[in-house]
Amino acid sequence: MTGRALGLADTEQENQLLVGIIEAISASPEVGPIAANTARLIVAATATDVCFVHVLDDTGTSLTLAGATPPLDAQVGNIRLGLGEGVTGWVASHRQPVVIAENKEADPRYRYFPELHGREFTSMASVPMASAPGGLVGVLNVHNRARRDFTERDVRLLTSIGSLVAGALHQARLHRQLAARNRAHDQFVEHVITVQEAERRRLAADMHDGISQRLLSLAFHLDAAADALTGTPQFAAQQLERARELVDLTLDEARAAIFDLRPPVLDDLGLADGLASLARSIPSVAVTVDADEFPLPEHVEIALYRIAQEALQNVVKHSGAARAELELRSEHGAARMRVTDDGTGFARAGVPSSDGDAPGYGLRSMAERAELVGGRLELRSSPGRGTTVSVRVPLR
């Protein structure tokens, strides 16, 4: 079988193989499927017995088996070797192809991997996978049980395939790194919000157990003193009455601050019933609520509640609406909430952006809350046709 080529009879077959490789690497942005599809196509088109795709890790110091044809695909992820180690490592470090027709053990670069059944194969060809944007990405190996003299044409074809696959693997690596950064960002945001809300809960508890209780005790003593002073000079009674008014005002402010730090309805009722409770507290506007109850991370619940709170406050302050609707749904792996009113509406371009009491300020606050939990806020409004605020948060 000396001199036998890879089994590609003509240029048309080569082109078909290259087209197949392009389609295979375009089918997935992940390293594993790209490597597996490439190995399968090469073996099928070249009549070789096995193909291995070794990929350079992110540190650029070692190679990992990322794709192989069955049954050796069971070793994917288990075989690692450094640059310069074995024939594969030599090809990676020198970026030159290697062809061994027989007697691999006599080659000083060869390293035997029992898991890959290397001694069952007589001949091998190994080429670097490199592309202009990504540089060296890995090494492509084919092995044959019977002796095969891989020709220059074979090596050129495998090198061309390696270049195509290298570009795809480089993009897959960038995709993986971006996905990892996104996961890290999501985890960081969730951690920040969790810590923030834990601190808010602690402050709310401290204020409730400390300031509020002392003020309640003070109010009790003032009431007792006022009763004891019945019939005494009018000035003392007036001062006690004024003190009582100040206590009531301070209590109201403390309760409002506690509520702003941590909505207790979320702990007591959950998000759906909490939104219904919020709607009942809105003055002068009839708010109907249609909310599904479904599990949500705590930081997402808080964000959606605050967005609903701000949206309904905007309805009261700016819309002139008589009615509003609040809807919460779980749809296609996301939480979707919508607040709609029948008010005057406005031209979107005319929304103020600097006045803290204007709609623009509230909209920015809602949008920032949505973005913090990976969501997106949308606003639809026009003069005379009311306003709709929608927020969608993916549930990962």
Describe what this molecule looks like in 3D:
With 396 residues, the protein is an alpha+beta fold. 50% of the residues lie in helices and 19% in strands. Strand 10 and strand 11 form a beta hairpin. It is elongated and about 115 Å long.
Helical run tally: 9
Strand content: 15-25%
Described by the principal axes of the CA atoms, the overall outline is elongated
Order of helices and strands: HHEEEHEEEHHHHEHEEHEE
CATH architecture of the largest domain, by name, is: 2-Layer Sandwich
Mean pLDDT: 80
Content-based structural category: alpha+beta
CATH superfamily of the largest domain: GAF domain
CATH class descriptor name of the largest domain: Alpha Beta
Helix content: 40-55%
Q: First CA to last CA: what distance?
A: 56 Å
Helix-strand layout with pairing:
Blueprint: H1 11-26, H2 31-46, E1 50-56, E2 62-68, E3 80-82, H3 86-94, E4 98-100, E5 123-131, E6 135-144, H4 152-228, H5 234-261, H6 264-269, H7 271-280, E7 286-291, H8 298-319, E8 323-331, E9 334-341, H9 359-372, E10 376-381, E11 387-394
Parallel strand pairs: 7-8
Antiparallel strand pairs: 1-2, 1-6, 2-3, 4-5, 5-6, 8-9, 9-11, 10-11
Helix pairs in contact: 1-2, 1-4, 2-4, 4-5, 7-8, 8-9
Q: Which features characterize this protein?
A:
five-stranded mixed β-sheet, alpha+beta, disordered N terminus, elongated, Heat Shock Protein 90, 3 domains, 19% strand, six-stranded antiparallel β-sheet, Beta-Lactamase, 396 residues
